[in-house]
Each structure stands twice: as C-alpha cells, then as structure tokens.
Amino acid sequence: MVVVVVFVVVLMVVMVVVVFVVVFVVVVIVVVFVVVVIVVVFVVVEEEEEEEEEEEEEEEEKKKEEEEEEEEEEKEEEEEENTEEEEEEEEEEEEEEEEEEEEEEEEEEEGRN
C-alpha cells in the first residue's frame, strides 16, 4: 500500500514537472516568435525609411543638376551676348579706323593738290 502511494506521488510529481517543462518550452517558443516578428518588422520599416531617404536624395540631386544646367545655360547666353557686343564694338572701331584713314588720305591728297 505504501509503495502504491509513493508510486502515485512520484508519478504526480513527474507529471507536474513535465507540464511545467512543456509550458516553459511553449512560452519560450512564443517569446522567440514575438521577438523575431518585432525584429523583422523593425528591419522592414528601416529599409522603407532608407528607400524613402534615397529617393529624396535622388530628387534633390536631380534638382541640383537642373539648377546647375540652368546656370550654365544662362552663363553661355551671357557669354554669347558679350561676344556679340565685343564683335560689334570691334567692327565699329574698325569702321572708325577706316574712316580716319580715309580722312587722312583725303587730307594728304588735298595737301598735295
């Protein structure tokens, strides 16, 4: 009789220990799963933020490039205008020099006559 009682008590203790171990394992599995899900979500959110930042940077770079191109075009236009003005001034100076030479030649001819 005592042996049966001891046997039953030992079985009950073993069952309780097994139940605690199973519960512990299930809890650990659930915690690990939750942690993995949280990490995955965090990584996905980080990647999305990085992609958004990269897109913003690309847009900024495009805007900068467009502004630089516009500035270059303006500079080229200004240079062209300056070149045209310089050419016109040179032509005017040449015409004036030619007129002066003609006047000098006329004066020399008049002086000879």
**Low-pLDDT ranges:** none
| Distance linking N and C termini | 166 Å
Shape: rod-shaped
Number of strands: 0
Overall radius of gyration:
48 Å
Helix content: over 70%
Give your account of this protein's structure.
The chain has 113 residues and is mainly alpha-helical. The protein contains one helix and no strands. The protein has one helix at 2-112. The longest helix is centred in the middle third of the chain and has 111 residues, at 2-112.
Put the structure in a nutshell:
This protein is an all-alpha fold. The protein has one helix and no strands. The longest helix has 111 residues, at 2-112.
Task: From the structure above, extract its key features.
single chain, 0% strand, mainly alpha, 113 residues, rod-shaped
Topology:
Layout: H1 2-112
